[in-house]
Amino acid sequence: MTDPKPVILIPGRINDRVRARVEAEFDCISIASADAGLVDPARRSAVVGIAAMTSITAQFMDAFENLAIIANYGVGYDAVDIKHAAERGIMVTNTPDVLSDEVADTTIALVLNTLREFPKAEAYLRAGRWESEGGYPLTSMTLRGRTAGIFGLGRIGLAIGRRLEGFGTPIHYHNRSQRNDVSYTYHDSLVGLANAVDLLICVVPGGAETDKIIDHKVFEALGENGVLINVGRGQSVDEPALIKALSQRTIAAAGLDVFADEPRVPKALLDLPNVCLLPHVASASIATRNAMADLCVDNLVAWLSGKPAITAVPETAS
Ligand code: NAP
Ligand code: 8YV
Protein backbone atom coordinates (compact mmCIF):
# COMPACT_ATOMS: atom_id res chain seq x y z
CA MET A 1 0.00 0.00 0.00
CA THR A 2 1.37 3.46 -0.91
CA ASP A 3 1.41 6.36 1.58
CA PRO A 4 -1.49 8.80 1.18
CA LYS A 5 -0.57 12.04 -0.58
CA PRO A 6 -0.03 15.12 1.64
CA VAL A 7 -3.12 17.32 1.93
CA ILE A 8 -2.75 20.87 0.56
CA LEU A 9 -5.39 23.53 1.12
CA ILE A 10 -6.06 26.27 -1.47
CA PRO A 11 -8.15 29.06 0.04
CA GLY A 12 -9.71 31.43 -2.49
CA ARG A 13 -8.61 32.19 -6.04
CA ILE A 14 -5.21 31.15 -7.32
CA ASN A 15 -3.37 30.80 -10.62
CA ASP A 16 -4.71 27.84 -12.70
CA ARG A 17 -1.30 26.21 -12.98
CA VAL A 18 -0.83 26.23 -9.21
CA ARG A 19 -4.22 24.57 -8.79
CA ALA A 20 -3.60 21.99 -11.56
CA ARG A 21 -0.21 21.00 -10.19
CA VAL A 22 -1.43 20.82 -6.58
CA GLU A 23 -4.35 18.64 -7.70
CA ALA A 24 -1.99 16.36 -9.64
CA GLU A 25 0.73 16.04 -7.03
CA PHE A 26 -1.16 16.26 -3.72
CA ASP A 27 -4.53 15.63 -2.16
CA CYS A 28 -6.06 19.08 -2.71
CA ILE A 29 -8.83 20.78 -0.73
CA SER A 30 -10.14 23.97 -2.33
CA ILE A 31 -12.29 26.42 -0.40
CA ALA A 32 -13.84 29.74 -1.50
CA SER A 33 -11.95 31.91 0.99
CA ALA A 34 -9.56 31.66 3.95
CA ASP A 35 -12.31 30.64 6.37
CA ALA A 36 -11.46 27.49 8.34
CA GLY A 37 -15.19 26.86 8.80
CA LEU A 38 -15.29 25.86 5.14
CA VAL A 39 -13.04 22.84 5.80
CA ASP A 40 -14.66 19.65 7.11
CA PRO A 41 -13.51 19.48 10.80
CA ALA A 42 -12.64 15.82 10.30
CA ARG A 43 -10.08 16.76 7.62
CA ARG A 44 -8.46 19.82 9.27
CA SER A 45 -5.73 17.85 11.05
CA ALA A 46 -4.70 16.30 7.73
CA VAL A 47 -3.79 19.68 6.17
CA VAL A 48 0.01 20.06 6.05
CA GLY A 49 0.34 22.79 3.44
CA ILE A 50 -1.40 25.88 2.12
CA ALA A 51 -0.91 27.41 -1.34
CA ALA A 52 -2.33 30.92 -1.35
CA MET A 53 -2.44 34.41 -2.75
CA THR A 54 -4.78 35.70 -0.08
CA SER A 55 -4.59 36.86 3.52
CA ILE A 56 -3.49 34.08 5.91
CA THR A 57 -4.16 35.11 9.50
CA ALA A 58 -2.90 33.57 12.74
CA GLN A 59 -6.43 32.34 13.48
CA PHE A 60 -6.64 30.60 10.11
CA MET A 61 -3.24 28.92 10.59
CA ASP A 62 -4.24 27.75 14.06
CA ALA A 63 -7.22 25.84 12.67
CA PHE A 64 -4.69 23.38 11.17
CA GLU A 65 -2.61 21.76 13.89
CA ASN A 66 -0.28 19.93 11.49
CA LEU A 67 0.28 22.85 9.10
CA ALA A 68 3.95 22.75 8.05
CA ILE A 69 4.24 25.11 5.09
CA ILE A 70 2.52 28.11 3.51
CA ALA A 71 3.55 28.59 -0.13
CA ASN A 72 2.71 32.19 -1.02
CA TYR A 73 2.01 32.76 -4.70
CA GLY A 74 3.81 36.10 -5.13
CA VAL A 75 7.06 37.62 -3.89
CA GLY A 76 5.29 39.99 -1.50
CA TYR A 77 4.02 38.07 1.53
CA ASP A 78 2.62 40.96 3.55
CA ALA A 79 -0.77 39.17 3.57
CA VAL A 80 0.66 36.30 5.65
CA ASP A 81 0.97 36.78 9.44
CA ILE A 82 4.67 35.99 9.22
CA LYS A 83 5.43 36.54 12.91
CA HIS A 84 2.85 33.94 13.89
CA ALA A 85 4.05 31.48 11.24
CA ALA A 86 7.64 31.84 12.46
CA GLU A 87 6.57 31.37 16.11
CA ARG A 88 4.69 28.21 15.19
CA GLY A 89 7.61 26.90 13.12
CA ILE A 90 5.60 26.97 9.90
CA MET A 91 7.76 27.37 6.78
CA VAL A 92 6.69 30.25 4.52
CA THR A 93 7.90 30.48 0.94
CA ASN A 94 7.42 33.13 -1.76
CA THR A 95 8.26 33.56 -5.47
CA PRO A 96 11.25 35.93 -5.76
CA ASP A 97 13.48 36.61 -8.80
CA VAL A 98 11.36 34.84 -11.44
CA LEU A 99 9.17 37.96 -11.75
CA SER A 100 11.74 40.73 -11.26
CA ASP A 101 12.41 41.44 -14.95
CA GLU A 102 8.70 41.41 -15.87
CA VAL A 103 7.83 43.79 -13.03
CA ALA A 104 10.75 46.06 -13.97
CA ASP A 105 9.62 46.10 -17.63
CA THR A 106 6.10 47.07 -16.52
CA THR A 107 7.50 49.80 -14.28
CA ILE A 108 9.34 51.39 -17.20
CA ALA A 109 6.16 51.22 -19.29
CA LEU A 110 4.20 52.85 -16.46
CA VAL A 111 6.84 55.58 -16.11
CA LEU A 112 6.68 56.41 -19.82
CA ASN A 113 2.88 56.15 -20.02
CA THR A 114 2.53 58.50 -17.06
CA LEU A 115 5.04 61.06 -18.32
CA ARG A 116 4.25 60.95 -22.04
CA GLU A 117 0.50 60.13 -21.78
CA PHE A 118 0.60 57.32 -24.39
CA PRO A 119 -2.68 55.67 -23.21
CA LYS A 120 -4.45 59.02 -23.58
CA ALA A 121 -2.82 59.63 -26.97
CA GLU A 122 -4.06 56.22 -28.19
CA ALA A 123 -7.58 56.95 -26.91
CA TYR A 124 -7.40 60.27 -28.82
CA LEU A 125 -6.50 58.44 -32.05
CA ARG A 126 -9.20 55.78 -31.55
CA ALA A 127 -11.81 58.49 -30.97
CA GLY A 128 -11.01 59.93 -34.42
CA ARG A 129 -9.69 63.14 -32.89
CA TRP A 130 -6.32 63.05 -34.71
CA GLU A 131 -8.19 63.36 -38.00
CA SER A 132 -10.77 65.87 -36.77
CA GLU A 133 -8.68 68.02 -34.41
CA GLY A 134 -5.05 67.50 -35.44
CA GLY A 135 -2.10 66.11 -33.49
CA TYR A 136 -2.29 65.12 -29.81
CA PRO A 137 -1.12 68.01 -27.59
CA LEU A 138 2.59 68.04 -26.73
CA THR A 139 3.18 66.52 -23.29
CA SER A 140 4.31 68.79 -20.48
CA MET A 141 6.27 65.92 -18.90
CA THR A 142 9.19 63.87 -20.20
CA LEU A 143 11.74 61.43 -18.82
CA ARG A 144 14.47 63.62 -20.32
CA GLY A 145 16.29 65.53 -17.60
CA ARG A 146 14.62 63.67 -14.73
CA THR A 147 16.32 62.11 -11.72
CA ALA A 148 14.82 58.85 -10.45
CA GLY A 149 14.59 57.79 -6.81
CA ILE A 150 14.00 54.11 -6.12
CA PHE A 151 12.33 53.44 -2.77
CA GLY A 152 13.16 49.77 -2.14
CA LEU A 153 16.34 48.94 -4.06
CA GLY A 154 16.01 45.16 -3.76
CA ARG A 155 15.66 42.51 -6.48
CA ILE A 156 13.02 44.41 -8.48
CA GLY A 157 14.39 47.85 -7.63
CA LEU A 158 17.78 46.83 -9.04
CA ALA A 159 16.16 45.51 -12.23
CA ILE A 160 14.39 48.88 -12.59
CA GLY A 161 17.67 50.71 -11.92
CA ARG A 162 19.50 48.73 -14.61
CA ARG A 163 16.82 49.69 -17.14
CA LEU A 164 16.86 53.37 -16.13
CA GLU A 165 20.64 53.45 -16.57
CA GLY A 166 19.99 52.69 -20.25
CA PHE A 167 17.77 55.79 -20.42
CA GLY A 168 20.60 57.94 -19.05
CA THR A 169 18.58 58.71 -15.91
CA PRO A 170 20.56 59.51 -12.73
CA ILE A 171 19.47 57.14 -9.93
CA HIS A 172 19.12 57.69 -6.19
CA TYR A 173 17.58 55.27 -3.66
CA HIS A 174 16.42 54.74 -0.11
CA ASN A 175 16.57 51.43 1.79
CA ARG A 176 16.99 50.91 5.52
CA SER A 177 20.61 49.93 4.76
CA GLN A 178 22.98 51.30 2.15
CA ARG A 179 24.06 48.77 -0.50
CA ASN A 180 27.76 48.31 -1.23
CA ASP A 181 27.22 46.90 -4.73
CA VAL A 182 25.78 49.97 -6.53
CA SER A 183 27.06 53.46 -7.28
CA TYR A 184 23.60 55.08 -7.04
CA THR A 185 23.22 57.94 -4.54
CA TYR A 186 21.95 56.70 -1.14
CA HIS A 187 19.56 58.65 1.10
CA ASP A 188 18.99 57.55 4.68
CA SER A 189 15.40 58.82 4.68
CA LEU A 190 12.45 58.65 2.30
CA VAL A 191 11.83 62.41 2.55
CA GLY A 192 15.52 62.99 1.78
CA LEU A 193 15.16 60.83 -1.33
CA ALA A 194 11.96 62.62 -2.41
CA ASN A 195 13.70 65.98 -1.99
CA ALA A 196 16.52 64.96 -4.30
CA VAL A 197 14.50 63.47 -7.18
CA ASP A 198 11.50 64.25 -9.41
CA LEU A 199 10.53 60.65 -10.26
CA LEU A 200 9.90 58.57 -7.15
CA ILE A 201 9.45 54.84 -7.79
CA CYS A 202 8.06 52.78 -4.90
CA VAL A 203 8.84 49.05 -4.94
CA VAL A 204 9.13 48.46 -1.23
CA PRO A 205 7.33 45.53 0.49
CA GLY A 206 4.01 46.14 2.26
CA GLY A 207 3.48 45.66 6.01
CA ALA A 208 3.33 47.70 9.19
CA GLU A 209 6.71 49.41 8.66
CA THR A 210 5.76 50.87 5.28
CA ASP A 211 2.03 51.43 5.89
CA LYS A 212 1.07 54.91 4.47
CA ILE A 213 4.77 55.85 4.55
CA ILE A 214 4.36 57.86 1.33
CA ASP A 215 2.42 60.74 2.86
CA HIS A 216 1.95 64.49 2.47
CA LYS A 217 5.52 65.15 3.69
CA VAL A 218 6.86 62.98 0.87
CA PHE A 219 4.63 64.73 -1.70
CA GLU A 220 5.76 68.16 -0.51
CA ALA A 221 9.38 67.03 -0.79
CA LEU A 222 8.81 65.58 -4.28
CA GLY A 223 7.45 68.93 -5.43
CA GLU A 224 5.27 70.32 -8.19
CA ASN A 225 7.26 68.73 -11.02
CA GLY A 226 7.43 65.42 -9.14
CA VAL A 227 5.90 62.12 -10.27
CA LEU A 228 5.11 59.11 -8.08
CA ILE A 229 5.16 55.60 -9.54
CA ASN A 230 3.95 52.77 -7.28
CA VAL A 231 4.49 49.11 -8.17
CA GLY A 232 5.07 47.95 -4.59
CA ARG A 233 1.95 47.84 -2.42
CA GLY A 234 -0.99 50.27 -2.38
CA GLN A 235 -0.97 50.35 1.42
CA SER A 236 2.41 52.14 1.35
CA VAL A 237 0.69 55.26 0.01
CA ASP A 238 -1.62 57.51 2.02
CA GLU A 239 -4.22 57.52 -0.79
CA PRO A 240 -6.34 60.48 0.43
CA ALA A 241 -3.11 62.52 0.75
CA LEU A 242 -2.09 61.42 -2.77
CA ILE A 243 -5.46 62.46 -4.21
CA LYS A 244 -5.10 65.86 -2.51
CA ALA A 245 -1.52 66.27 -3.75
CA LEU A 246 -2.55 65.42 -7.33
CA SER A 247 -5.64 67.66 -7.23
CA GLN A 248 -3.76 70.63 -5.79
CA ARG A 249 -0.71 69.96 -8.02
CA THR A 250 1.58 69.55 -5.00
CA ILE A 251 2.98 66.87 -7.34
CA ALA A 252 2.54 66.67 -11.11
CA ALA A 253 1.32 63.11 -11.70
CA ALA A 254 1.21 59.50 -10.52
CA GLY A 255 1.39 56.08 -12.17
CA LEU A 256 -0.09 53.32 -10.03
CA ASP A 257 -0.22 49.53 -10.45
CA VAL A 258 -1.29 48.90 -6.86
CA PHE A 259 -3.98 50.33 -4.58
CA ALA A 260 -4.86 50.32 -0.90
CA ASP A 261 -8.12 48.34 -1.24
CA GLU A 262 -7.83 46.27 -4.44
CA PRO A 263 -9.73 45.79 -6.66
CA ARG A 264 -11.55 48.92 -5.52
CA VAL A 265 -9.98 52.14 -6.84
CA PRO A 266 -11.26 55.42 -5.33
CA LYS A 267 -13.47 57.38 -7.76
CA ALA A 268 -11.49 60.51 -6.90
CA LEU A 269 -8.39 58.84 -8.41
CA LEU A 270 -10.29 57.66 -11.50
CA ASP A 271 -11.54 61.22 -12.05
CA LEU A 272 -8.09 62.81 -11.97
CA PRO A 273 -6.50 63.73 -15.32
CA ASN A 274 -2.90 63.41 -14.10
CA VAL A 275 -2.83 59.68 -13.25
CA CYS A 276 -2.07 56.51 -15.18
CA LEU A 277 -3.72 53.46 -13.58
CA LEU A 278 -3.10 49.73 -14.05
CA PRO A 279 -5.00 46.84 -12.38
CA HIS A 280 -2.02 45.21 -10.55
CA VAL A 281 -0.57 43.66 -13.70
CA ALA A 282 3.17 44.19 -13.22
CA SER A 283 3.95 40.45 -13.26
CA ALA A 284 0.86 39.43 -15.23
CA SER A 285 2.17 37.64 -18.33
CA ILE A 286 1.41 33.93 -18.78
CA ALA A 287 5.13 33.08 -18.88
CA THR A 288 5.99 34.92 -15.68
CA ARG A 289 2.91 33.75 -13.80
CA ASN A 290 3.73 30.15 -14.88
CA ALA A 291 7.24 30.55 -13.47
CA MET A 292 5.77 31.89 -10.21
CA ALA A 293 3.28 28.99 -10.14
CA ASP A 294 6.02 26.40 -10.60
CA LEU A 295 8.17 27.95 -7.88
CA CYS A 296 5.17 28.08 -5.53
CA VAL A 297 4.40 24.36 -6.03
CA ASP A 298 8.07 23.27 -6.21
CA ASN A 299 8.50 24.71 -2.71
CA LEU A 300 5.64 22.51 -1.44
CA VAL A 301 7.09 19.45 -3.17
CA ALA A 302 10.59 20.07 -1.78
CA TRP A 303 9.58 20.82 1.81
CA LEU A 304 7.05 17.99 2.08
CA SER A 305 9.57 15.48 0.74
CA GLY A 306 12.07 16.45 3.45
CA LYS A 307 14.27 18.72 1.32
CA PRO A 308 15.06 22.40 2.03
CA ALA A 309 12.53 24.92 0.79
CA ILE A 310 13.75 26.57 -2.42
CA THR A 311 12.76 30.13 -1.55
CA ALA A 312 12.01 30.43 2.15
CA VAL A 313 11.24 33.97 3.29
CA PRO A 314 13.96 35.34 5.63
CA GLU A 315 11.74 35.14 8.75
CA THR A 316 11.32 31.36 8.44
CA ALA A 317 14.61 30.41 6.74
CA SER A 318 16.79 28.43 9.12
P1 NAP B 1 13.27 42.64 -2.00
O1 NAP B 1 14.34 42.10 -2.88
O2 NAP B 1 13.11 42.11 -0.63
O3 NAP B 1 13.49 44.22 -1.93
C1 NAP B 1 12.86 45.05 -1.03
C2 NAP B 1 13.73 46.26 -0.78
O4 NAP B 1 13.01 47.19 0.05
C3 NAP B 1 15.02 45.94 -0.08
O5 NAP B 1 16.06 46.57 -0.76
C4 NAP B 1 14.87 46.53 1.33
O6 NAP B 1 16.12 47.04 1.77
C5 NAP B 1 13.85 47.65 1.09
N1 NAP B 1 13.01 47.86 2.28
C6 NAP B 1 12.27 46.92 2.93
N2 NAP B 1 11.63 47.49 3.97
C7 NAP B 1 11.97 48.80 3.95
C8 NAP B 1 11.64 49.91 4.78
N3 NAP B 1 10.82 49.77 5.85
N4 NAP B 1 12.16 51.12 4.49
C9 NAP B 1 13.00 51.26 3.44
N5 NAP B 1 13.36 50.25 2.61
C10 NAP B 1 12.85 49.04 2.87
O7 NAP B 1 11.86 42.50 -2.70
P2 NAP B 1 11.51 42.47 -4.26
O8 NAP B 1 11.58 41.10 -4.78
O9 NAP B 1 12.28 43.56 -4.93
O10 NAP B 1 9.94 42.89 -4.17
C11 NAP B 1 9.57 44.10 -3.59
C12 NAP B 1 8.07 44.24 -3.46
O11 NAP B 1 7.48 44.56 -4.71
C13 NAP B 1 7.30 43.01 -2.99
O12 NAP B 1 7.38 42.82 -1.60
C14 NAP B 1 5.89 43.32 -3.45
O13 NAP B 1 5.19 44.03 -2.45
C15 NAP B 1 6.10 44.23 -4.65
N6 NAP B 1 5.71 43.58 -5.92
C16 NAP B 1 4.67 44.07 -6.64
C17 NAP B 1 4.33 43.47 -7.84
C18 NAP B 1 3.19 43.99 -8.66
O14 NAP B 1 2.56 43.19 -9.35
N7 NAP B 1 2.91 45.27 -8.66
C19 NAP B 1 5.02 42.35 -8.29
C20 NAP B 1 6.07 41.87 -7.54
C21 NAP B 1 6.42 42.50 -6.35
P3 NAP B 1 16.48 47.13 3.35
O15 NAP B 1 16.20 45.77 3.92
O16 NAP B 1 17.92 47.54 3.38
O17 NAP B 1 15.57 48.17 3.90
C1 8YV C 1 1.05 39.29 -8.09
C2 8YV C 1 2.72 40.59 -6.62
O1 8YV C 1 0.08 40.18 -8.52
O2 8YV C 1 4.44 38.99 -6.40
C3 8YV C 1 3.82 39.92 -5.88
O3 8YV C 1 4.11 40.35 -4.75
O4 8YV C 1 2.17 41.56 -6.17
C4 8YV C 1 2.30 40.09 -7.96
O5 8YV C 1 3.30 39.45 -8.65
C5 8YV C 1 0.47 38.51 -6.96
O6 8YV C 1 1.30 38.08 -6.02
C6 8YV C 1 -0.31 37.30 -7.48
O7 8YV C 1 -1.46 37.67 -8.03
Explain the overall architecture.
- It is a single chain.
- A seven-stranded parallel sheet has the order 8-7-6-9-10-11-12, sandwiched between helices. A five-stranded parallel sheet has the order 2-1-3-4-5, sandwiched between helices.
- Helix 9 runs parallel beside helix 10.
- The mean pLDDT is 98.
- Strand 10, helix 11 and strand 11 form a beta-alpha-beta unit.
- With 318 residues, the chain is an alpha/beta fold.
- The radius of gyration is 22 Å and the shape is elongated.
- The relative contact order is 0.14.
- Helix content is 36%, strand content 15%.
- It binds NADP nicotinamide-adenine-dinucleotide phosphate and 2-keto-D-gluconic acid.
- The site of NADP nicotinamide-adenine-dinucleotide phosphate has 29 residues, from helix 8.
